Protein backbone atom coordinates (compact mmCIF):
# COMPACT_ATOMS: atom_id res chain seq x y z
CA UNK A 1 0.00 0.00 0.00
CA UNK A 2 1.24 3.40 -0.90
CA UNK A 3 1.26 5.91 1.93
CA UNK A 4 0.59 9.34 0.67
CA UNK A 5 1.18 12.25 2.93
CA UNK A 6 -1.01 15.18 2.07
CA UNK A 7 -0.17 18.57 3.30
CA UNK A 8 -2.85 21.17 3.45
CA UNK A 9 -2.06 23.96 0.95
CA UNK A 10 -2.20 26.66 3.69
CA UNK A 11 0.25 24.67 5.81
CA UNK A 12 2.76 24.28 2.99
CA UNK A 13 2.53 27.97 2.15
CA UNK A 14 3.06 28.88 5.78
CA UNK A 15 6.04 26.53 5.99
CA UNK A 16 7.51 28.07 2.85
CA UNK A 17 6.96 31.58 4.16
CA UNK A 18 8.53 30.72 7.52
CA UNK A 19 11.45 29.06 5.75
CA UNK A 20 11.93 32.09 3.56
CA UNK A 21 11.70 34.50 6.49
CA UNK A 22 14.24 32.37 8.33
CA UNK A 23 16.68 32.39 5.40
CA UNK A 24 16.34 36.14 4.91
CA UNK A 25 17.18 36.58 8.57
CA UNK A 26 13.82 37.95 9.69
CA UNK A 27 14.05 36.08 12.99
CA UNK A 28 17.54 37.11 13.89
CA UNK A 29 17.70 38.53 17.39
CA UNK A 30 20.47 40.47 19.01
CA UNK A 31 22.44 38.19 21.33
CA UNK A 32 24.17 39.34 24.53
CA UNK A 33 27.29 41.40 23.81
CA UNK A 34 26.39 41.87 20.12
CA UNK A 35 26.19 45.44 18.78
CA UNK A 36 22.73 47.06 18.42
CA UNK A 37 20.86 45.40 15.53
CA UNK A 38 18.82 47.33 12.96
CA UNK A 39 17.12 45.26 10.25
CA UNK A 40 15.07 48.04 8.66
CA UNK A 41 11.56 47.22 7.46
CA UNK A 42 12.09 45.35 4.19
CA UNK A 43 12.88 41.62 4.54
CA UNK A 44 16.27 40.62 3.13
CA UNK A 45 16.94 44.06 1.59
CA UNK A 46 16.95 45.72 5.01
CA UNK A 47 18.70 49.07 4.53
CA UNK A 48 20.16 48.25 1.09
CA UNK A 49 18.38 50.99 -0.85
CA UNK A 50 19.38 53.86 1.44
CA UNK A 51 22.87 52.46 1.86
CA UNK A 52 23.44 52.22 -1.89
CA UNK A 53 22.11 55.75 -2.49
CA UNK A 54 24.52 57.61 -0.21
CA UNK A 55 26.53 55.36 2.13
CA UNK A 56 28.31 58.15 4.03
CA UNK A 57 25.12 60.12 4.72
CA UNK A 58 23.17 57.01 5.67
CA UNK A 59 25.87 55.73 8.02
CA UNK A 60 26.03 59.13 9.72
CA UNK A 61 22.26 58.93 10.38
CA UNK A 62 22.67 55.40 11.77
CA UNK A 63 25.57 56.50 13.95
CA UNK A 64 23.44 59.25 15.46
CA UNK A 65 20.74 56.66 16.16
CA UNK A 66 22.86 53.76 17.48
CA UNK A 67 26.26 55.13 18.53
CA UNK A 68 29.69 54.17 17.21
CA UNK A 69 29.04 50.44 16.75
CA UNK A 70 25.94 48.78 15.25
CA UNK A 71 24.79 45.98 12.96
CA UNK A 72 22.67 46.52 9.85
CA UNK A 73 20.88 44.17 7.49
CA UNK A 74 21.93 45.12 3.95
CA UNK A 75 20.82 42.95 1.02
CA UNK A 76 20.84 39.70 3.02
CA UNK A 77 24.13 40.44 4.79
CA UNK A 78 24.51 41.38 8.40
CA UNK A 79 27.15 44.07 8.47
CA UNK A 80 28.76 45.42 11.63
CA UNK A 81 29.85 49.04 11.32
CA UNK A 82 32.50 50.39 13.57
CA UNK A 83 32.89 54.15 13.56
CA UNK A 84 35.34 54.50 16.47
CA UNK A 85 38.73 54.70 14.72
CA UNK A 86 40.50 54.35 18.05
CA UNK A 87 39.34 50.72 18.07
CA UNK A 88 40.50 49.86 14.53
CA UNK A 89 43.94 48.61 15.49
CA UNK A 90 42.95 45.27 17.10
CA UNK A 91 40.70 44.58 14.10
CA UNK A 92 43.39 45.32 11.53
CA UNK A 93 45.78 43.10 13.48
CA UNK A 94 43.32 40.21 14.00
CA UNK A 95 44.30 36.90 12.37
CA UNK A 96 42.62 35.99 9.06
CA UNK A 97 41.25 32.83 10.76
CA UNK A 98 38.92 35.18 12.59
CA UNK A 99 38.62 38.27 10.40
CA UNK A 100 39.46 37.52 6.80
CA UNK A 101 40.26 40.38 4.43
CA UNK A 102 40.64 38.28 1.27
CA UNK A 103 37.25 36.61 1.04
CA UNK A 104 35.27 39.73 0.20
CA UNK A 105 38.02 41.16 -2.04
CA UNK A 106 38.28 37.87 -3.96
CA UNK A 107 34.54 37.90 -4.64
CA UNK A 108 34.84 41.40 -6.10
CA UNK A 109 37.86 40.42 -8.22
CA UNK A 110 35.92 37.42 -9.53
CA UNK A 111 32.82 39.50 -10.36
CA UNK A 112 34.77 42.29 -12.02
CA UNK A 113 37.90 40.72 -13.52
CA UNK A 114 36.60 37.16 -13.95
CA UNK A 115 39.36 35.28 -12.17
CA UNK A 116 39.80 33.86 -8.72
CA UNK A 117 42.93 35.17 -7.00
CA UNK A 118 44.73 32.82 -4.62
CA UNK A 119 47.04 33.36 -1.64
CA UNK A 120 50.07 32.82 -3.92
CA UNK A 121 48.96 35.62 -6.28
CA UNK A 122 48.46 37.89 -3.33
CA UNK A 123 51.84 37.02 -1.88
CA UNK A 124 53.60 37.88 -5.18
CA UNK A 125 51.67 41.16 -5.48
CA UNK A 126 52.75 42.19 -1.97
CA UNK A 127 56.38 41.13 -2.41
CA UNK A 128 56.93 42.76 -5.79
CA UNK A 129 55.08 45.93 -4.80
CA UNK A 130 57.34 46.27 -1.77
CA UNK A 131 60.37 45.99 -4.01
CA UNK A 132 59.34 48.27 -6.88
CA UNK A 133 56.80 50.71 -5.43
CA UNK A 134 58.94 51.75 -2.45
CA UNK A 135 62.50 52.88 -1.74
CA UNK A 136 64.98 52.63 -4.62
CA UNK A 137 62.44 50.97 -6.94
CA UNK A 138 60.08 53.89 -6.39
CA UNK A 139 62.82 56.45 -7.13
CA UNK A 140 63.34 54.80 -10.54
CA UNK A 141 59.62 54.77 -11.26
CA UNK A 142 59.21 58.42 -10.20
CA UNK A 143 61.86 59.46 -12.70
CA UNK A 144 60.08 57.61 -15.50
CA UNK A 145 56.77 59.13 -14.39
CA UNK A 146 58.26 62.64 -14.68
CA UNK A 147 59.52 61.83 -18.19
CA UNK A 148 56.16 60.48 -19.29
CA UNK A 149 54.33 63.45 -17.85
CA UNK A 150 56.52 65.71 -19.99
CA UNK A 151 55.69 63.60 -23.06
CA UNK A 152 51.96 63.78 -22.36
CA UNK A 153 52.04 67.53 -21.67
CA UNK A 154 53.95 68.30 -24.83
CA UNK A 155 51.59 66.13 -26.84
CA UNK A 156 48.54 67.77 -25.29
CA UNK A 157 49.92 71.24 -26.00
CA UNK A 158 51.19 70.27 -29.44
CA UNK A 159 47.94 68.72 -30.55
CA UNK A 160 45.85 71.74 -29.45
CA UNK A 161 43.91 73.20 -32.35
CA UNK A 162 45.49 76.61 -31.89
CA UNK A 163 49.03 75.98 -30.80
CA UNK A 164 50.35 78.72 -28.47
CA UNK A 165 46.81 79.85 -27.70
CA UNK A 166 44.51 79.10 -24.84
CA UNK A 167 43.02 75.62 -24.87
CA UNK A 168 39.77 74.66 -23.22
CA UNK A 169 39.03 71.52 -21.27
CA UNK A 170 37.01 70.29 -18.29
CA UNK A 171 39.13 70.14 -15.13
CA UNK A 172 38.12 66.55 -14.42
CA UNK A 173 38.90 65.41 -17.95
CA UNK A 174 42.18 67.31 -18.12
CA UNK A 175 43.65 66.23 -14.80
CA UNK A 176 42.47 62.62 -14.88
CA UNK A 177 43.56 62.09 -18.51
CA UNK A 178 47.01 63.62 -18.01
CA UNK A 179 47.95 61.53 -14.98
CA UNK A 180 46.30 58.41 -16.46
CA UNK A 181 48.30 58.56 -19.66
CA UNK A 182 51.60 59.29 -17.94
CA UNK A 183 51.15 56.50 -15.38
CA UNK A 184 50.03 54.08 -18.09
CA UNK A 185 53.22 54.72 -20.08
CA UNK A 186 55.39 54.57 -16.94
CA UNK A 187 53.94 51.25 -15.78
CA UNK A 188 52.99 49.40 -18.97
CA UNK A 189 55.73 50.66 -21.31
CA UNK A 190 55.75 52.04 -24.83
CA UNK A 191 55.43 50.60 -28.35
CA UNK A 192 58.56 49.05 -29.84
CA UNK A 193 58.00 50.68 -33.22
CA UNK A 194 60.36 53.63 -32.56
CA UNK A 195 59.26 55.58 -35.60
CA UNK A 196 55.65 56.03 -34.53
CA UNK A 197 56.01 55.01 -30.90
CA UNK A 198 55.11 58.33 -29.31
CA UNK A 199 52.20 59.15 -31.58
CA UNK A 200 50.72 55.64 -31.57
CA UNK A 201 51.07 55.15 -27.86
CA UNK A 202 49.47 58.46 -26.99
CA UNK A 203 46.60 57.89 -29.39
CA UNK A 204 46.12 54.46 -27.86
CA UNK A 205 46.24 56.00 -24.37
CA UNK A 206 43.36 58.29 -25.33
CA UNK A 207 41.22 55.32 -26.36
CA UNK A 208 42.25 53.47 -23.19
CA UNK A 209 41.23 56.40 -21.06
CA UNK A 210 37.76 56.67 -22.60
CA UNK A 211 37.04 52.97 -22.16
CA UNK A 212 38.57 52.93 -18.70
CA UNK A 213 36.14 55.60 -17.52
CA UNK A 214 33.19 53.67 -18.94
CA UNK A 215 34.36 50.51 -17.19
CA UNK A 216 34.94 52.32 -13.90
CA UNK A 217 31.44 53.78 -14.07
CA UNK A 218 30.01 50.22 -14.15
CA UNK A 219 32.34 48.98 -11.39
CA UNK A 220 29.97 49.16 -8.37
CA UNK A 221 27.20 47.19 -10.11
CA UNK A 222 29.76 44.68 -11.40
CA UNK A 223 31.28 44.23 -7.95
CA UNK A 224 27.89 43.52 -6.40
CA UNK A 225 26.78 41.36 -9.35
CA UNK A 226 23.71 43.53 -10.06
CA UNK A 227 24.28 44.58 -13.70
CA UNK A 228 21.24 45.03 -15.91
CA UNK A 229 21.26 43.37 -19.38
CA UNK A 230 22.68 46.48 -21.10
CA UNK A 231 25.35 46.79 -18.37
CA UNK A 232 26.29 43.15 -18.92
CA UNK A 233 26.73 43.74 -22.65
CA UNK A 234 28.80 46.87 -22.06
CA UNK A 235 31.11 45.25 -19.51
CA UNK A 236 31.61 42.26 -21.78
CA UNK A 237 32.70 44.56 -24.61
CA UNK A 238 34.97 46.65 -22.38
CA UNK A 239 36.59 43.63 -20.75
CA UNK A 240 37.33 42.16 -24.17
CA UNK A 241 38.85 45.48 -25.25
CA UNK A 242 41.23 45.54 -22.28
CA UNK A 243 42.01 41.82 -22.42
CA UNK A 244 43.00 42.29 -26.03
CA UNK A 245 45.14 45.40 -25.51
CA UNK A 246 46.70 44.15 -22.28
CA UNK A 247 47.19 40.57 -23.46
CA UNK A 248 50.44 39.14 -22.14
CA UNK A 249 51.52 38.56 -25.72
CA UNK A 250 51.16 42.27 -26.59
CA UNK A 251 52.55 43.61 -23.32
CA UNK A 252 55.65 41.42 -23.62
CA UNK A 253 56.44 43.06 -26.97
CA UNK A 254 56.57 46.54 -25.41
CA UNK A 255 59.61 48.57 -24.50
CA UNK A 256 60.39 50.06 -21.06
CA UNK A 257 57.80 48.08 -19.08
CA UNK A 258 58.10 48.88 -15.37
CA UNK A 259 59.65 46.22 -13.16
CA UNK A 260 56.46 46.25 -11.08
CA UNK A 261 54.55 44.86 -14.07
CA UNK A 262 57.28 42.78 -15.72
CA UNK A 263 58.56 40.93 -12.63
CA UNK A 264 55.07 40.28 -11.31
CA UNK A 265 54.03 38.77 -14.61
CA UNK A 266 57.17 36.63 -14.76
CA UNK A 267 56.55 35.28 -11.26
CA UNK A 268 52.87 34.64 -11.96
CA UNK A 269 53.91 32.60 -15.01
CA UNK A 270 56.42 30.67 -12.89
CA UNK A 271 53.75 29.54 -10.43
CA UNK A 272 51.68 28.23 -13.33
CA UNK A 273 49.16 31.01 -13.95
CA UNK A 274 47.69 30.54 -17.43
CA UNK A 275 48.23 33.20 -20.09
CA UNK A 276 44.54 34.08 -19.95
CA UNK A 277 44.68 34.65 -16.19
CA UNK A 278 47.88 36.68 -16.51
CA UNK A 279 46.10 38.97 -18.96
CA UNK A 280 43.13 39.26 -16.60
CA UNK A 281 45.59 40.09 -13.83
CA UNK A 282 47.19 42.82 -16.01
CA UNK A 283 43.80 44.46 -16.31
CA UNK A 284 43.33 44.28 -12.54
CA UNK A 285 46.69 46.01 -12.08
CA UNK A 286 45.71 48.71 -14.56
CA UNK A 287 42.45 49.33 -12.74
CA UNK A 288 43.99 49.31 -9.22
CA UNK A 289 46.79 51.65 -10.25
CA UNK A 290 44.55 54.18 -12.02
CA UNK A 291 41.03 54.27 -10.62
CA UNK A 292 41.75 56.45 -7.57
CA UNK A 293 44.74 58.53 -8.64
CA UNK A 294 42.98 60.45 -11.45
CA UNK A 295 40.06 61.61 -9.29
CA UNK A 296 42.54 62.60 -6.52
CA UNK A 297 44.58 64.66 -9.03
CA UNK A 298 41.35 66.37 -10.10
CA UNK A 299 40.42 67.26 -6.51
CA UNK A 300 43.86 68.72 -5.82
CA UNK A 301 43.67 70.97 -8.88
CA UNK A 302 40.05 71.99 -8.31
CA UNK A 303 40.79 73.05 -4.72
CA UNK A 304 43.87 75.00 -5.72
CA UNK A 305 41.83 76.83 -8.36
CA UNK A 306 38.96 77.46 -5.98
CA UNK A 307 41.08 78.72 -3.07
CA UNK A 308 43.45 81.41 -4.40
CA UNK A 309 45.33 81.72 -1.09
CA UNK A 310 46.17 78.00 -1.30
CA UNK A 311 47.25 78.33 -4.96
CA UNK A 312 49.39 81.37 -4.11
CA UNK A 313 51.16 79.59 -1.23
CA UNK A 314 51.75 76.37 -3.17
CA UNK A 315 52.84 78.24 -6.30
CA UNK A 316 55.41 80.20 -4.27
CA UNK A 317 56.71 76.91 -2.90
CA UNK A 318 56.96 75.39 -6.38
CA UNK A 319 58.68 78.52 -7.73
CA UNK A 320 61.21 78.25 -4.89
CA UNK A 321 61.88 74.62 -5.85
CA UNK A 322 62.44 75.68 -9.45
CA UNK A 323 64.92 78.37 -8.38
CA UNK A 324 66.74 75.91 -6.12
CA UNK A 325 67.00 73.37 -8.95
CA UNK A 326 68.18 76.02 -11.43
CA UNK A 327 65.10 75.92 -13.64
CA UNK A 328 62.82 78.60 -14.94
CA UNK A 329 59.58 78.75 -16.82
CA UNK A 330 60.11 81.31 -19.56
CA UNK A 331 59.18 81.39 -23.24
CA UNK A 332 61.30 78.78 -24.97
CA UNK A 333 62.68 77.13 -21.82
CA UNK A 334 62.37 73.34 -21.55
CA UNK A 335 59.63 71.56 -19.63
CA UNK A 336 60.52 71.40 -15.94
CA UNK A 337 62.03 68.33 -14.37
CA UNK A 338 61.96 67.65 -10.63
CA UNK A 339 63.30 64.79 -8.62
CA UNK A 340 61.24 64.14 -5.50
CA UNK A 341 64.34 62.94 -3.68
CA UNK A 342 65.90 66.39 -3.83
CA UNK A 343 62.95 68.73 -3.24
CA UNK A 344 60.97 69.64 -0.14
CA UNK A 345 57.37 70.82 -0.60
CA UNK A 346 55.63 70.75 2.82
CA UNK A 347 52.68 72.91 1.68
CA UNK A 348 51.97 70.78 -1.38
CA UNK A 349 52.34 67.62 0.75
CA UNK A 350 49.84 69.01 3.25
CA UNK A 351 47.45 69.96 0.41
CA UNK A 352 47.57 66.42 -0.99
CA UNK A 353 47.05 64.90 2.46
CA UNK A 354 44.09 67.22 3.03
CA UNK A 355 42.52 66.17 -0.29
CA UNK A 356 42.99 62.48 0.57
CA UNK A 357 41.36 63.14 3.97
CA UNK A 358 38.43 65.07 2.47
CA UNK A 359 37.75 63.11 -0.68
CA UNK A 360 38.85 59.48 -0.32
CA UNK A 361 36.45 57.30 1.61
CA UNK A 362 37.41 53.62 1.35
CA UNK A 363 35.33 50.81 2.80
CA UNK A 364 37.45 48.20 4.55
CA UNK A 365 35.70 44.83 4.69
CA UNK A 366 36.48 41.86 6.87
CA UNK A 367 34.54 38.55 6.80
CA UNK A 368 33.85 37.14 10.27
CA UNK A 369 35.13 33.54 10.02
CA UNK A 370 34.32 32.59 13.65
CA UNK A 371 32.66 34.36 16.56
CA UNK A 372 35.16 37.11 17.38
CA UNK A 373 35.53 39.35 20.44
CA UNK A 374 36.33 43.03 20.19
CA UNK A 375 37.55 45.11 23.09
CA UNK A 376 37.06 48.73 22.16
CA UNK A 377 39.48 51.49 23.11
CA UNK A 378 37.16 52.68 25.90
CA UNK A 379 36.87 49.15 27.37
CA UNK A 380 33.44 48.14 25.97
CA UNK A 381 33.34 44.55 24.74
CA UNK A 382 31.41 43.14 21.79
CA UNK A 383 31.09 39.89 19.84
CA UNK A 384 30.86 39.66 16.04
CA UNK A 385 28.88 36.64 14.86
CA UNK A 386 30.40 34.06 12.49
CA UNK A 387 29.20 34.53 8.90
CA UNK A 388 28.66 38.29 9.24
CA UNK A 389 30.66 41.05 7.61
CA UNK A 390 32.54 43.80 9.38
CA UNK A 391 32.97 47.20 7.77
CA UNK A 392 35.37 49.93 8.80
CA UNK A 393 34.69 53.31 7.30
CA UNK A 394 37.54 55.61 8.33
CA UNK A 395 36.06 58.52 6.42
CA UNK A 396 33.36 58.84 9.05
CA UNK A 397 35.27 57.50 12.04
CA UNK A 398 38.50 59.37 11.47
CA UNK A 399 38.64 61.85 8.58
CA UNK A 400 35.46 63.68 9.60
CA UNK A 401 35.94 63.56 13.36
CA UNK A 402 35.63 67.19 14.58
CA UNK A 403 37.71 66.42 17.68
CA UNK A 404 40.65 65.47 15.46
CA UNK A 405 39.96 67.88 12.62
CA UNK A 406 38.10 71.03 13.70
CA UNK A 407 35.62 72.08 11.02
CA UNK A 408 36.22 68.77 9.23
CA UNK A 409 34.32 69.54 6.00
CA UNK A 410 36.40 72.63 5.26
CA UNK A 411 39.45 72.48 2.97
CA UNK A 412 42.56 73.79 4.74
CA UNK A 413 45.63 73.36 2.62
CA UNK A 414 47.99 73.78 5.61
CA UNK A 415 46.03 71.61 8.05
CA UNK A 416 48.83 69.06 8.36
CA UNK A 417 51.50 71.62 9.26
CA UNK A 418 52.41 73.55 12.39
CA UNK A 419 52.83 77.34 12.00
CA UNK A 420 56.62 76.79 11.83
CA UNK A 421 56.20 74.44 8.84
CA UNK A 422 56.90 71.20 10.74
CA UNK A 423 54.50 68.25 10.51
CA UNK A 424 51.52 68.42 12.89
CA UNK A 425 50.49 65.73 15.33
CA UNK A 426 46.85 64.81 15.91
CA UNK A 427 45.10 63.84 19.15
CA UNK A 428 41.88 62.15 20.25
CA UNK A 429 40.76 62.01 23.89
CA UNK A 430 44.12 63.53 24.76
CA UNK A 431 45.97 60.59 23.14
CA UNK A 432 48.38 61.10 20.24
CA UNK A 433 47.12 59.23 17.17
CA UNK A 434 49.46 56.88 15.31
CA UNK A 435 47.11 56.84 12.30
CA UNK A 436 45.18 59.99 11.61
CA UNK A 437 44.16 59.36 7.97
CA UNK A 438 43.47 56.07 6.19
CA UNK A 439 42.80 56.80 2.50
CA UNK A 440 44.80 53.71 1.56
CA UNK A 441 43.17 51.30 4.00
CA UNK A 442 45.15 49.60 6.74
CA UNK A 443 46.51 46.34 8.09
CA UNK A 444 47.58 43.51 5.78
CA UNK A 445 45.34 44.68 2.93
CA UNK A 446 46.71 48.24 2.85
CA UNK A 447 47.21 49.65 -0.68
CA UNK A 448 50.63 48.52 -1.94
CA UNK A 449 50.78 51.47 -4.36
CA UNK A 450 50.32 54.21 -1.73
CA UNK A 451 53.83 55.67 -1.94
CA UNK A 452 53.75 55.78 -5.73
CA UNK A 453 50.25 57.30 -5.62
CA UNK A 454 51.44 60.20 -3.45
CA UNK A 455 54.55 60.65 -5.63
CA UNK A 456 52.41 60.76 -8.77
CA UNK A 457 50.16 63.40 -7.22
CA UNK A 458 53.17 65.49 -6.22
CA UNK A 459 54.88 65.24 -9.59
CA UNK A 460 51.64 65.96 -11.41
CA UNK A 461 50.66 68.93 -9.24
CA UNK A 462 54.15 70.44 -9.41
CA UNK A 463 54.04 70.27 -13.21
CA UNK A 464 50.49 71.63 -13.41
CA UNK A 465 51.31 74.55 -11.14
CA UNK A 466 54.69 75.36 -12.66
CA UNK A 467 53.91 74.72 -16.26
CA UNK A 468 50.39 75.82 -16.96
CA UNK A 469 48.55 79.05 -16.45
CA UNK A 470 44.89 78.75 -15.72
CA UNK A 471 41.89 80.83 -16.42
CA UNK A 472 38.82 79.32 -14.80
CA UNK A 473 35.39 80.81 -14.11
CA UNK A 474 36.05 80.66 -10.38
CA UNK A 475 32.77 82.26 -9.40
CA UNK A 476 31.05 79.25 -10.86
CA UNK A 477 33.23 76.58 -9.30
CA UNK A 478 31.08 73.72 -8.11
CA UNK A 479 33.44 70.81 -7.59
CA UNK A 480 31.53 67.80 -8.86
CA UNK A 481 33.42 64.75 -10.03
CA UNK A 482 31.38 64.19 -13.15
CA UNK A 483 31.58 67.58 -14.81
CA UNK A 484 33.91 69.79 -12.84
CA UNK A 485 34.04 73.10 -14.59
CA UNK A 486 35.80 74.06 -17.76
CA UNK A 487 39.08 75.85 -17.74
CA UNK A 488 41.18 77.62 -20.29
CA UNK A 489 44.83 76.89 -20.08
CA UNK A 490 48.13 77.57 -21.72
CA UNK A 491 51.69 76.48 -21.17
CA UNK A 492 53.51 79.22 -19.27
CA UNK A 493 56.70 78.69 -21.22
CA UNK A 494 55.09 78.65 -24.72
CA UNK A 495 57.29 75.91 -25.99
CA UNK A 496 58.75 76.29 -29.40
CA UNK A 497 59.29 72.55 -29.96
C1 LIG B 1 45.13 58.07 -4.58
C2 LIG B 1 45.38 56.89 -5.08
C3 LIG B 1 45.03 55.56 -4.44
C4 LIG B 1 44.15 55.28 -3.44
C5 LIG B 1 43.24 56.24 -2.67
C6 LIG B 1 44.19 53.84 -3.21
C7 LIG B 1 43.45 53.17 -2.24
C8 LIG B 1 43.43 51.80 -2.10
C9 LIG B 1 42.64 51.10 -1.12
C10 LIG B 1 41.71 51.75 -0.10
C11 LIG B 1 42.86 49.77 -1.28
C12 LIG B 1 42.23 48.62 -0.48
C13 LIG B 1 42.89 48.57 0.88
C14 LIG B 1 42.20 47.66 1.86
O1 LIG B 1 41.31 46.90 1.49
O2 LIG B 1 42.60 47.72 3.05
C15 LIG B 1 43.80 49.63 -2.39
C16 LIG B 1 44.24 48.43 -2.89
C17 LIG B 1 45.14 48.30 -3.91
N1 LIG B 1 45.84 49.32 -4.54
FE1 LIG B 1 45.56 51.29 -4.23
N2 LIG B 1 45.09 53.29 -4.08
C18 LIG B 1 45.65 54.30 -4.84
C19 LIG B 1 46.61 54.18 -5.83
C20 LIG B 1 47.22 52.99 -6.18
C21 LIG B 1 48.34 52.88 -7.10
C22 LIG B 1 49.03 54.05 -7.79
C23 LIG B 1 48.62 51.54 -7.21
C24 LIG B 1 49.70 50.85 -8.01
C25 LIG B 1 50.63 51.39 -8.71
C26 LIG B 1 47.67 50.82 -6.38
C27 LIG B 1 47.60 49.45 -6.27
C28 LIG B 1 46.70 48.77 -5.47
C29 LIG B 1 46.55 47.33 -5.46
C30 LIG B 1 47.30 46.34 -6.36
C31 LIG B 1 45.58 47.02 -4.49
C32 LIG B 1 45.06 45.63 -4.08
C33 LIG B 1 45.91 45.13 -2.94
C34 LIG B 1 45.55 43.79 -2.42
O3 LIG B 1 44.69 43.10 -2.98
O4 LIG B 1 46.14 43.41 -1.40
N3 LIG B 1 46.86 51.73 -5.76
N4 LIG B 1 44.15 50.88 -2.85
From TrEMBL:
It is a single-pass membrane protein. Keywords: Endoplasmic reticulum, Heme, Iron, Lipid biosynthesis, Lipid metabolism, Membrane, Metal-binding, Transmembrane, Transmembrane helix. It is found in: Endoplasmic reticulum membrane. Heme binds at residue 447. Gene3D superfamilies: Cytochrome P450. The keyword rRNA processing does not apply. It holds the Pfam family p450. The keyword Repressor does not apply. InterPro entries: Cyt_P450, Cyt_P450_CYP7A1-type, Cyt_P450_E_grp-IV, Cyt_P450_sf. It comes from the Eukaryota. Substrate binds at residue 292. Its cofactor is heme. It comes from Podarcis muralis. This is Cytochrome P450 family 8 subfamily B member 1. GO terms for molecular function: heme binding; iron ion binding; sterol 12-alpha-hydroxylase activity. GO terms for cellular component: endoplasmic reticulum membrane. GO terms for biological process: lipid metabolic process. The lineage of its organism: Eukaryota, Metazoa, Chordata, Craniata, Vertebrata. Belongs to the cytochrome P450 family.
